[in-house]
Structure formats: structure tokens, C-alpha cells
Amino acid sequence: MTLGSFLNKRLAAASKREKAEVVVKNAKIVDVFTLETYEADVAITDGMIVGVGFYEGVTEIDANGAYMAPSFIDGHVHIESAMVPPEEFAKIVVPRGVTTIMADPHEIANVGGFEAVKYMIEASKELPLDVKIMVPSCVPATNFEHNGADITTDEIETLFDELHAYGLAEVMDYPAVLSGEENMVSKLSAAWKRGKIIDGHAAGLDDVGLNAYRVAGIRNDHEAVTAEEGLARIRRGMYLLMREGTAAKDIEALLPIVTPQNGRRCVFATDDKHLDDLIHEGSIDASVRKAIELGIEPLQAIQMASLNAAECFGLNEKGAIAPGYEANFLLIRNLESLDIESVYVKGQCVAKNGEMTVTVREPIAPPTYLLESVRLKPLSSEQLDLNITGNKAHVIGVKPGSIVTEHLIEEVDVNNGLFQTSVTKNHLKLVVAERHHKLGHVGVGIMKGIRIKEGAIVATVAHDSHNIVACGTDDQSISFAINQIAQQQGGIAVVKGSEVLANLPLPLAGLMSLQPFEKINESLQQLEDGLKQIGFEEEWNPFLTLSFLALPVIPSLKLTDTGLFDVEQFSHIDVSAKE
Asked: Between 153-161 and 182-193, two packed helices, what is the crossing angle to 10 degrees?
């Protein structure tokens, strides 16, 4: 059918010359343009809303007085953080009311490069979830660590031109932007020339840095963690993406700046959210609920999750209940509690009462090399030694609920010049081991904030290069944990000595499981039990926190496979601190 035929068919239904294919009746429409509700029929043909008023349909849906709201858009998400491929991810978030996501496959790209992004594009097709793939802009994220692959400007252009990637994902190498570094400018220009959206990653940037980002064409940012930072972005014409994930929870700090005047520049994003949190809390629906609980009017919270996000990303046919918009909507019984009864995509019911009502196609088989991505050079015991001059050291301070760390200088226990862990002081050994090319690089540092009393925890999820990251109370546990995770080609584990207490294999790039999400959730519960066995009693998730301790583009102090990294100085430093 030609475009003209489609248009004629929709016009016939809109003008009532023919019945609409579907009409929703007895609904209270959530108008995200005026922030009011009103009652009317909504006519749908070819998956598009063609009329609001009084209509007759071939099929009529009785909403029974429910609110009819546009479905939600996640402004920035790494699917890999849920440890499932796109097909399983759709099964989790669609029943929660999320029908569109701006997905950045940055994590798997750092393992497998261009071909890994191609895989994610293919795996995202023909789903009830509209996955807009943003091309990773910084692979590797920095030159201060070793990842699995690079993505060049030529490859970015190919992803734009031949595979229809939607935009350029978070630009996190801010020194390259500020200095006008040639390679970075070429990537930005590739997006500019094609009219593509460019995402920001302005963690810790001052006003001058934000000015440069905006001049570079970067129009949004999800790294504001204070009200002042959020307002600085809005004042520069950026969209403020309010992040609420597992490790980073910024909504409460940012919401106080939202007013009727600036609220249209605010959008929700999850960024990184673990599977169990998605299941138990939700996705963008959880952000909307939290905003309402913190005092935002329900209609404005829904507007932020739909129309604002659609306009931020140029999704001109999404985000509202109005003619000319896709019929992606929710039927909600109570706006305050956001009780979602059913989810519709292009006029078809795809989920009801928290369960999918349509079958999601079978997963796309990943390339074999993504299933063989852990290549670790054997560790020697000496590589885990940490030499300390004196008794003071630079310590990575973990802050629960944040991916930003503190740069601490503390007295540590030292024996014969070697650092000794201390459960009393909560000084654990942190290790990052290169796992892509058998280079043998091992970074060792000290961390404080993940309170375990014995053993170690380990993962191949370590943003952004995804080397192996482990922390523990003794070298035996740490060494065993690293070798165990390498032998099984990736995953997350809790160990004590030479015993595996709990384990979740992640064979797909060391980041994702190939099991149904329900099975993965069972393994996550076993990991929680394993954590209790080694003395972790906190309510927050230490694994996602651990995964960000190797990310040298988020302040303040991090550890890479080549050593301790001061993000403020943007350089490596010695662990020993001067007296």
C-alpha cells in the first residue's frame, strides 16, 4: 500500500466517511498538552490516532472510565544492565507501560565493537517495544584502560546510513569535546550532517564545559545529580534527563527545580537498572510514581514520561493522545498510584495486568565470538599485592545510591609495605583485571563502602570497558573469584575462599544471560542469599555499585586495569598518599 493509500484510509476514518478500525470509548483522556483530562472517544486506524470526539469503530474498546494516557518513553537506557537481550527486555518493561526506549548499546560495544552493535540492532527489530538504537560515541570511553574493541567514525557513519541507527549516544569523553580533538569532532560532525540527535554525558562539568557541549550539538544530559546542576542544563537549552536507576537515583535531588515554566524540559531515564529492580519497582513507571510521591502533579509526571521525551528525541508521532500520533497508550485506573491495567501499541493490546498478551518472537542468535569474550591471562599471586609507602592511601569511597565516589585519604593497615584489608575499617581490596586480549593488566586499589565480612564478589560487568572487577577481604577469595568467572565466560558471583556461594553466568559478552528473565531473577535472589553469607546486610545492590568503580569518566576516584584513576585530574595516581 502506498503512502497516499495509507493517508486516504486514515482521512476517511478521521472525517467519518468510514468507520475507524478501533475506537476507545468511555475513557478519560490524559491531555499532556494542557495538563487536563476530558472524556471523548479515540478513533484509531492503521495504528494511528485519527480522531478524538465521537466516533464509531469496527471494533470498540470500553475503557470503563479508566484514564487513557500516552505510554512511556525511556530517555536513556543500557539494555545490557538488565542482563538480558532486547527480546527479554521487552517482556519486562512493556507491561510496565514503556513502549519506546532510547537504547545505547555502549556496554556490549566495548566488548564486541561494530558487530556487537549490529547484533543489538537486529535483536531489537519486530518487538512490541520500539527500540531506538543510539550509536556509541566513545568506544573506548577513554585511553586510560583497555576494552575489547573500538568504534570508528567510518563505522558510525555506516551504522547511520545502512543500519538506520537513530542518533549518537552519550558523549562522555569531555576533554576531547572541550579541546576539539579531531576524532571526536569527526564523530559529532557525522551526526550533525545527518540531523541526528546527540546525547550528553556531562558528569561534573562546569558552566564552561556545558557551554561547549551545547555548541557541539549535545541537547540532553542524564548526569546531573544536584538541583544546581539540573538548572544549569535547562538554562542552556538542554533537556534534563532525570535518572533513576539501580546505582544512581537522582530524581529526589532534581525534582525541586521543576516548575510549570521549565517542566517541559524535563524527561525521565533509567540509564542502568538491574533486572530485579525492573521486576519489583518498574522502569519509567517507577520514576513517574516517585515523582508523584514527591509532589509533582500526576499529569505533569506523565507528560515528562511521554510528550517531553518524545519532543526531546524528535519522535514527532509519539507521546500524546491526539490525532496524528501513534496509538501507543495506557489504560490507568488510578493516576496517583499509576495502576496500569493495560498497554496498547499501535492500537493493539500487548499487555494486561502486568503480563504480556502477545507472543514476543524468538531471540536472535548472537555471534559466536560474543559468547567467547572472556580471555584472561592467568593471574599470579604477586599481581594482587598492593605496595603502600607509609600508612596513608587514596581510598575509593562508595556512596550507596550514587555512581559518584568520594576521594578519601585514610590510614590503612600495612605489613612489610603491603596493604592489608580491614573489615573493621571497611577497607577492602579492589581489583580490575583485563579480560579481552590477555594483556595481563591488573589494577589494584582500596575501596570503602561495600561492607562484607569475608570472601569476595566479582563480575564481568564493569563499566565501561567491562573487564573483570572484584572486591574482597582476602587474596584467595579474590583470585578464585576472578578465575571462576573467567572459566565460565562471564557473570556475577559471590565466593568465600575456594567455594562459590552464588553464581549468575552471563555468557553473552560477559554482560547478558540467554535464560528467560524469570530464571535470571531466581539466580539474582540466590546472589542476595550469598551476600548475606559473607556478611553484607545493606538494602542496596552492591554489584551495580561495584560495576561503576571501574568507570573513569564519573567522579571522583576510580580503578582501571592500569591503576588508580583520579577523574578530577583525568590521570592515574599512585595509591600511596603523601604524609
From this structure: 10
